[in-house]
DNA sequence: GATAATATGTAGCGAGTGCTACAAAGACTG
DNA sequence: CAGTCTTTGTAGCACTCGCTACATATTATC
């Protein structure tokens, strides 16, 4: 088991990197294997079949995201929800985050379609992000749990509109009036 | 041209029906052809290649959606934005709408990934829906354009959280306090 | 009715898919 | 050293993919 799981854990980061750049649904064994410096034969050997590979990969990516969020924690807290929203939105739109965002929408779509493993990964990532968002709210926020969910709803809606080419007027003009308090 | 486009127009509804039930990205020519009562050979003949077929299909589906929205228009207007939000959310979560919603997230994901044709379709559908949403706002709404965008952001965020298994606490608790005025 | 344009069926190509059978090399254990 | 177990390479299978060559109907035009 030690050797096997060690190999799997060695493979997963490289596979995840490839998936972040080329997508998850369209990925096939041979390109994945080449990206990880091995063969399709060995991927099946280590993961059993492709469905399991995808499931493990999703779990691994959720883990990456989780640790990234943990690393992003800390620093001075914002003073208002609006400030919190803007800060996170800016981070979400950062070019560095784009491969992850693209993959995120693919995961959402797979979750909606019922592709095995996708919903679990999406749920895990969303739960983690909600917990993280709670810690990012202003110190004096009257309802951190509810506020995090409200902000997340607004955030994801805004990001989605951006993906679709409606980042401009989307929520910009409106948030000034509605994002103040709870 | 007449015969050709007539055949194309005959095919498109059946193709769209199949795509709504089985997805767009994973659809391949032979199953599509069988669903439309023809052959892969003829699909290529009528559309040139698969990319063009997908583009035409997306445009056709956007058209379907547009007319569906037009048909849904009318009726008494809601009295508050909150009422408007609830009504549309309920409609969006209706089982009858689910195939369309599933496809919608696939289109969003394709748009994010840059798949040819997806972004245009997503943009068209979103633009149409925003225009429709403006007409659905309360008569006395102080800022219909902005309000539609705000509601759309909230709506799409809520629907996305639902797809991912977070429909419960998502925005429910919060909307009471924040959705009142402009 | 000859000719041409349009429409459709049959068969298949080359590439890619997930996955497996077989064999062999290496490592570990008695 | 013999025997066993883990890891890996090679080759290939049965299948699907988008697409095309070729032949043949069907229809329109002169």
What do you see in this structure?
- The structure is a homodimer of 182-residue chains.
- Chain A is an all-alpha fold and 182 residues long.
- Chain A is 73% helix and 0% strand.
- Chain A contains nine helices and no strands.
- Chain A has helices at 2-22, 29-35, 40-47, 50-72, 81-92, 98-113, 118-136, 144-163, 172-178.
- The longest helix of chain A is centred in the middle third of the chain and has 23 residues, at 50-72.
- The mean pLDDT of chain A is 90.
- Chain A binds a DNA duplex (30 and 30 nucleotides) through helix 1 and helix 3.
Tally of extended strands of chain A? 0
Average the pLDDT over all residues of chain A and give the rounded result.
90
Sheet with the most strands, sense and barrel status of chain A: none
Name the quaternary structure: homodimer
Helix and strand element order of chain A: HHHHHHHHH
What overall geometry of chain A do the principal axes of the alpha carbons give? elongated
What is the first-to-last residue Cα distance of chain A?
A: 52 Å
The most extensive interface between chains reads: A-B, 46 and 47 residues
What structural class results from the helix and strand content of chain A?
Answer: mainly alpha
In percent, how helical is the residue content of chain A? over 70%
The value of Rg of chain A in angstroms is: 19 Å
Unreliable stretches of chain A: none
Our count of helices of chain A gives: 9
Strand content of chain A: under 5%
Summarize the structure.
The structure is a homodimer of 182-residue chains. Chain A has 182 residues and is mainly alpha-helical. Chain A is built from nine helices and no strands.
